[in-house]
């Protein structure tokens, strides 16, 4: 095992509105403080009572999926929490992932594509402070 599923991230034009929509469907808490990420006008979360955290990421000029039109496919990505970003990087590349964005030094996440081209992120697990 390389990482833990932290959340499923959906692209959207208005993160808080979409989080509230899913809150009405699933219950849970919108934008609950969580050490794994910061909340801002471009990022919102829903912590449902069951299942994984859903996160909503603002995408300027968002074009919704055109179900079932493959020219505008479904849009989401997974965030996988890892203890050692460099070791996880090596492992996912060995498994066939492609690095899309290494980020700057010190940034706690990197973006990859799975073998079919779907993006996912490796995110350094936040350590509790003593």
Structure description:
It is a single chain. By secondary structure, this protein is of the alpha+beta class. The chain has a single domain (4-124), classed as 2,3-Dihydroxybiphenyl 1,2-Dioxygenase, domain 1 (Roll). The chain is built from two helices and eight strands; from the N terminus they run E-H-E-E-E-E-H-E-E-E. Strand 3 and strand 4 (53-58) form a beta hairpin. The chain is globular and about 40 Å long. The mean pLDDT is 89. Residues 4-125 form the VOC domain. InterPro entries: Glyas_Bleomycin-R_OHBP_Dase (IPR029068), Glyoxalase_6 (IPR041581), VOC_core (IPR037523).
What overall form do the CA principal axes indicate? globular
| Secondary structure: number of strands | 8
Q: How far apart are the termini?
A: 27 Å
CATH-level-4 superfamily name: 2,3-Dihydroxybiphenyl 1,2-Dioxygenase, domain 1
Domain VOC: 4-125
Protein name: Glyoxalase
Organism: Wenjunlia vitaminophila (Streptomyces vitaminophilus)
Pfam family, one: Glyoxalase_6
Task: Please describe the topology of this protein.
Elements: E1 4-12, H1 15-26, E2 29-30, E3 43-47, E4 53-58, E5 76-82, H2 85-94, E6 98-101, E7 109-113, E8 119-124
Parallel strand pairs: 1-4, 5-8
Antiparallel strand pairs: 1-5, 2-3, 3-4, 6-7, 7-8
Write a brief structural summary.
The chain has 130 residues and is α+β, with helices and mostly antiparallel strands. The protein is built from 2 helices and 8 strands, in the order βαββββαβββ.
Keywords:
130 residues, alpha+beta, 2,3-Dihydroxybiphenyl 1,2-Dioxygenase, domain 1, 8-stranded mixed sheet, 2 helices, 8 strands, 17% helix, globular, VOC_core, Glyoxalase_6, Glyoxalase, Glyas_Bleomycin-R_OHBP_Dase
């Amino acid at each position: 095992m390389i990482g833990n599923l932290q959340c499923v991230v959906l692209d959207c034009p208005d993160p808080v509105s979409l989080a509230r929509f899913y809150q009405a469907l699933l219950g849970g808490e919108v934008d609950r403080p969580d050490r794994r990420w910061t909340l801002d006008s471009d990022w919102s979360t829903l912590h449902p009572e069951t299942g994984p955290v859903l996160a909503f990421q603002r995408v300027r000029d968002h074009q919704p999926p055109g179900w079932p039109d493959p020219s505008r496919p479904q849009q989401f990505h997974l965030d996988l929490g890892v203890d050692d970003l460099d070791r996880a990087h090596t492992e996912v590349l060995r498994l066939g992932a492609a690095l899309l964005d290494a980020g700057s030094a010190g940034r706690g996440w990197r973006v990859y594509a799975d073998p079919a081209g779907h993006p996912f992120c490796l995110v350094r697990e936040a350590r509790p402070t003593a």
